[in-house]
Design brief:
TolA/TonB C-terminal domain; alpha+beta; 6-stranded antiparallel beta sheet
Length: 282
């Protein structure tokens, strides 16, 4: 009961702004969901069981989220990781997305929606310098439009960006269908423009021939609003998934498990989870 009441209070206070005067369409509001990223480290035994875990700043997490994540991790089992052909104990960095969504006037869903586990050392993508931020489209600034563009970059042998695409654009601003598409288009253009200027240090280790692909969530926060702090809910309207024009672009998990402003190499997965992500509550 307390968990349900907390989620109802969350929904009433979601910081989603509106493009124009008047209430947003009911169809747009019904798409709102909220998520929270929980990060930490997980120690996995040679046979794939969870030996221990250490969540980042557990005191910053809502009690119902902390309980859900801890109960879920304890039941996970991974495919054994082999090092030189021998099963080995490993430690992996985890990013776990907890999702909350309104079902109807009286019920709210909360569950684990996605998880990402880091790959082997040296297989990642590191920017040569902090990634330049996009130029915020002035007309979208004036309207208070915010969101996240999930960008994929193709990185050449010299570390420059050879090609870019956007997979999805989530919004923190409501409007009708035409308005929201214009918002997504404007944020996408700005994100892709800056992505072409980035430069990366090539990854090291075996099986690292170029080119490389990496995902980078690009976040737009309008003036007067602040970035979502760790342990806070982030409200948004998920955008449609774009068609994939690249044959070498693989499904590497839910991009919303990635922390905005960081680069994540595709094709360098961590331990493989064998059990379901976890139970949900309502």
């Amino acid at each position: 009961m307390h968990r349900t009441l907390a989620l109802i209070a969350l929904w009433l206070a979601l910081p989603v702004s509106t493009w124009a005067a008047g209430p947003p369409p009911a169809s747009a509001r019904s798409q709102i969901e909220a998520s929270m990223l929980v990060t930490g480290d997980i120690d996995v035994t040679a046979d794939g069981a969870v030996a221990a875990y250490r969540l980042d700043r557990p005191d910053a997490l809502p009690p119902e989220v902390l309980s859900l994540v801890e109960e879920t991790i304890a039941g996970w089992r991974f495919k054994p990781v082999r090092v030189d052909g021998v099963p080995a104990s490993v430690s992996t960095r985890a990013s776990i997305r907890v999702r909350a969504k309104k079902i109807d006037e009286h019920r709210y869903f909360m569950g684990i929606a996605g998880a990402r586990f880091s790959g082997r050392t040296g297989s990642g993508i590191r920017p040569r310098q902090p990634l330049a931020a996009p130029h915020y489209p002035p007309h979208l600034v004036d309207l208070g439009v915010g969101g996240t563009v999930y960008v994929v970059v193709r990185i050449a042998a010299d570390g420059s960006v050879a090609d870019v695409l956007a997979e999805r654009v989530d919004l923190t601003t409501l409007g009708n269908d035409i308005q929201m598409q214009r918002m997504r288009d404007g944020l996408e253009r700005a994100a892709l423009a800056v992505a072409k200027t980035w430069s990366f240090a090539p990854p090291t280790g075996p099986d690292n021939a170029p080119p490389w692909l990496a995902r980078v969530p690009v976040e737009f926060i309008p003036p007067g609003r602040t970035a979502t702090a760790y342990g806070e809910w982030h409200a948004f309207v998920p955008g449609p998934q774009h068609d994939n024009p690249w044959p070498d672009l693989i499904d590497d998990g839910d991009p919303s498990t990635l922390v905005a402003g960081n680069a994540y190499r595709l094709g360098a997965p961590g331990p493989e989870l064998l059990t379901p992500l976890g139970a949900s509550t309502d």
